[in-house]
Each structure stands twice: as C-alpha cells, then as structure tokens.
Design brief:
The chain is of the alpha/beta class. The protein is built from eleven helices and eight strands.
Length: 310
C-alpha cells in the first residue's frame, strides 16, 4: 500500500449495547500508539479527535430497542465525518461499539457514490449483525449495521445512501447468528465465510476470491474489524466473546493480504472495551493488526528472493 493519509476519527459510542466501556476505546488506541505505528510506516496521520453527536428523538415499533436517539445521532455525525474524510485520505474510525458502522459505512458509501465506484464491505466479526430495529430481540443496535448497509427495512433511520449489493458484502469469521438473521441471510447473496468455511478452506482462498472481485470491479473496500473476530484467548477486551475465533497468525495473515491488495479505502476498529482488557493487551494487538494492514512485515520477501537468500 502506498503512502496514505490516515485520518483518525474517534467514535466513543456506547449506545449500541448494554455493557459500558466501549466509549473508552478511542483513548485506548491512542494510548497504545496507533498514530506512531502508522507514522513509522511512512504514512501521514491526522487525528481529528473524537466526534460528538446530538441525539435525534425517534421511536420504532419494537420496544426492546434502547438508546435509539443516541444511535441516530451518532449515525448522522459519523456519516458526515466519514464522507468528509474520504475526500482527504483513508478514515480510520476508532470505536466504540459496532453500531458506529451505521454511520461510518453510510459516509463511505456516500463518498463511493460520488466517486462513481462500487463499495465493497469486509465484515470481520463473530456475528453477522443482520438484525434490523424490528427483528432484534436484545434491542442492541450494534447487531444491525450489515442489514442497514444492505438496504433492509430500517425504520427511524435515514435511507442508506446507495445500499451495498449483497454480493459486495463478505462476512468473514462469523460463528454466532440468531435465527431471524439466519433466515434473512438465506434471502441475500452475501458471501458467508463462517468459521466452518475457514476451518475447511483456510483464510487465504475465500479472502483472495473476495479481493479479486473488488479489484475486478475497481471497487472501494471498507473493512470493519470487530475485536470478537479474534479468539478470546488472544483478545479478551470485548463484551461479546465467542469461542473459536481467528488466531493471532490468522488475523495477521488477513491484514497482510489486505495490505498487498492495495484495495482498502476505510477502516472500522470496533468493540474494544478497555475495562475488560489485561494491561492494554488487546489494544496493542489491534494496533499491531492495523500496522500489518498498512504495511508492517516481518520479512521483505521480494527483496530476499531477488538477492537469492535462503
């Protein structure tokens, strides 16, 4: 990936779920040295600070839904910030729970529409996040962004700007899907690479197939990285742990492949709850993964091969 202008947008969002702590995520990423890691790789970094929101009063028919005004406010604020940042470089949204993607992807989608290019989304997560405000039983809106960006019915929210075609969405590493989500996913052509698929095929083949589709379409690629994509043993600082996630090496391999593709145009870092971390262990791992995405390597393989070294 060539030198990039990385724009850090803090999204201290805690309204999409019920376990407090995700609002501390942006500070944790900064403390773990995200900006320094990117600058050491030759990238330009602008920290735009933390976004703020004005709640938007609204209701939906589902009484389980909570913190809707705050989530609507964050959606509007992050969509505006994301669209503006896309004109300057690569926005990196520092979360915050995954409901922030209701806004981040909306902003990126608006920018893609303006550029006349298709948007693709890689969803690295234990969950499919395919509920709507009408189908969620928990009322946690962090479980809804994929449904929103795919254009499903979403009462109280503004229409998604240029819905992402289902075939342009790749769910990668999922292993927890509610029955209502499962039924809805069967009606959409979304690429579903759950952990069964990754166990059978590995991470390389399905990810390469998706990246080839992005490249062929000259698409823009938004990556949404949830901490619970990773196995809880390596990344404990998340309130939605699900056993059997990606290993340390699998996660780095995904990031290295994304770097080599040179296709990523925006990034979410979500669901980090520093209150649940062990001396910053998960925050540092997430920063290391971003560094891999942006070019950090253990070996410069092409140079070593050219020199004929073993």
């Amino acid at each position: 990936m060539p030198q990039t202008h990385c724009l850090l947008i803090g999204a201290p969002v805690d309204s999409g779920q019920r376990r407090p702590g995700c609002l501390m995520g942006p500070a944790a990423y900064r403390t773990a040295g995200l900006a320094n890691a990117l600058e050491s790789l030759g990238h330009r970094v602008s920290d735009l600070g933390d976004a703020t929101c004005d709640p938007v009063e609204a209701t939906v028919a589902n009484p389980a839904v909570h913190h809707l005004p705050e989530t609507l406010g964050w959606t509007a604020a992050l969509a505006e910030a994301g669209e503006a940042a896309m004109d300057q470089g690569m926005p990196i949204f520092l979360g915050g729970d995954h409901s922030l993607a209701l806004g981040s992807v909306a902003g990126v989608a608006a920018a893609a529409k303006k550029a006349g290019r298709p948007l693709f989304v890689l969803w690295l997560d234990a969950h499919s996040d395919f509920h709507t405000p009408l189908t969620t039983e928990s009322g946690n809106l962090h479980g809804t962004p994929v449904a929103y960006l795919a254009g499903r019915e979403f009462p109280a929210f503004p229409p998604f700007p240029n819905p992402v075609p289902p075939q342009n969405i790749c769910l990668f590493g999922i292993r927890s899907v509610d029955p209502a989500e499962h039924a809805a996913l069967l009606d959409h052509e979304i690429a579903i690479n759950d952990m069964r698929v990754l166990d059978e095929r590995g991470v390389v083949a399905p990810l390469r197939e998706f990246l080839e589709a992005v490249e062929e379409a000259t698409g823009m690629l938004h990556v949404s990285l949830d901490v619970d994509f990773l196995a809880p043993a390596v990344a404990p600082a998340v309130g939605t742990t699900v056993p059997g996630g990606a290993t340390f090496r699998e996660a780095h391999l995904v990031m290295e492949m994304l770097h080599e593709s040179e296709l990523v145009t925006s990034l979410d870092l979500v669901e980090l709850n520093p209150f649940l971390d062990e001396r910053g262990r998960t925050a540092h791992l997430m920063v290391d993964l971003v560094a891999s995405l942006m070019g950090k390597k253990v070996f410069d393989r092409p140079t070593r091969a050219f020199r004929g070294q073993a």
